[in-house]
Amino acid sequence: MIKSFICFISIICTIAITPFRKLETSFKSKSTDTIPPNAQKLIKYYPDAIAGFANNYLIFKDHSKLIWDDGIKNQSFQTLLDKPDLKDMFSQHYQSGALVNPPARNFDPGRIRNEDFFKKVYGSNESKVKKHLTEINWCPKLVGQKITVTTVNSIDKKLIRISNELDEHPELKKYLTDIGGTFTWRNIAGTNRHSMHSYGMTIDINTSYSDYWQWNCKCSNEDALITHKNRIPQLIIDIFEQNGFIWGGKWYHYDTMHFEYRPELVF
Question: Which one of 47, 113, 145, 205 is separated from 32 by 20 to 30 angstroms, measured CA to CA?
Answer without folding.
Answer: 113
